[in-house]
Amino acid sequence: MSKPSRPLWAAVFFALFLFFGQDSSLLRAQNADSETESATAMEKGIDILVPSAGVIVDFGVPKRFDLTGGSYLGGGVQVQSRTLDVPASGEGILLFSQQQDFLQTSFPRSRDNLIALAHPSGFVSVYSSPSLSFPDGVMKNEVTNDQPIGSIGTARGTADASYYLRIADTRSRLLVNPALFATSMIDRAAPRIEEVSLIRDGFELKAELARRLLQRLAQGDYRLAVRLYDPSYAGGVVSGLFRIKIVLDGQVVADRKFDSAQNTDQGLGFLGLQAPSFQLADNDGRFLLGSRFLARGNHSLELTVYDFNGNAGSFLWRFIVE
Fold first, then answer.
1. Is the model's pLDDT at 236 over the cut of 70?
2. In this structure, are 155 and 218 located in the same domain?
3. Buried b or exposed e, range 296-322, using 16+ CB within 10 angstroms
4. Could you report the per-residue pLDDT of 256-296, keeping only the tens digit for each?
């Protein structure tokens, strides 16, 4: 797969940046604060309707390319459509449509058909599916909220009718977590911590999650590798991993949110870290977080992970560095 010299998003962002101005109505920084997260749909200027049939937010979740097997982080939400129609997330104008081509954000989910809408608030919503078709009516400039802008063809009717949705803020030039715009997403299932490991030069120490063992390792620089999973709640709702907090020896060493991702020529950058995002994930579906020197002595590492609805899972690991 050849990479474009400059992502399509970059050109789109530049054009809309000039049109909409420089003040973002949602994101003024990489990590949203609590006031931003609780903003109403009207204040956000765009609304995503969360159907009862299910929605899976995979923003920032490690995934793998179907063909190459390489890793990347998800950038949107999989929506189970109530019908075969794909509704507009809000009023806007048709920005572009594209058939059987990669969405050029460096990390496409598949070779999909695409429709992009520009909204008055400065956001762009992009809808994609391999079977997405474009009705003649949507080729007009303006669309209204919830208006069908395309349809999905499936062999099983609405049973497997789904599309993928991404949202970008043209003013801050960030790809935004779609969960920030959901108004009816009910999720009471806490994320699960499936693996916590310290890795260094081919050596790997995996925490014993089920047993309280005081494990040992040699002094040196280590990266933290974690595998996380956010299970679905009743109706198939997955609000998605949203925040990771790491406390080492009583000191907070990381507390970051999956609220947005920088879009650059090198790819997407999550958690305020440098692009491309595949540097944050390995082929085993684990997050690879920072490098830190561990000196001799007793240590404790507490990992807490939250989903968008605030459900939390945590694990405390005690170990000795020799």
1. yes
2. no
3. eeebebbbbbbbbbebebebebebebe
4. 999 998 877 777 888 877 777 777 888 888 998 888 999 99
What's the token pair of residue 287?
């997050």
Quote the pTM value: 0.80
Give the integer Cα–Cα distance in Å for 151 and 135: 8
What pLDDT, on the 0 to 100 scale, is given for residue 133? 83
Backbone torsions φ then ψ of 277, nearest 5 degrees: -70, -20
pLDDT for residue 137: 53
CA separation for the pair 208, 318 (Å, rounded): 10
In the numeric block, the tokens 């097997």 are attached to 69
Which residues are within 8 A (CB) of 148 and not within 5 positions of it... i.e. 6 or more apart? 85, 86, 87, 88, 135, 138
- To which residue do tokens 């954000």 refer? 105
Number of domains composing the chain: 2
Instruction: Round to whole Å and give the CA distance between 106 and 3.
Output: 7
- The pLDDT, as a whole number, for residue 156 is 55
- Residue 172: which pLDDT band, with cuts at 50, 70 and 90? confident
What is each CA distance from 234 to 22, 53, 107, 244, in whole angstroms?
Answer: 40, 10, 30, 24
How many Å from the N-terminal Cα to the C-terminal Cα in the chain?
46
Sign of CA dihedral 129, 134, 135, 138: positive
- DSSP state, 63? E
Residue 295 in domain: yes
The per-residue pLDDT for 161 is 75
Q: Domain containing 263 — which CATH number?
A: 2.70.50
> Do residues 280 and 288 make contact, with C-beta atoms less than 8 angstroms apart?
yes
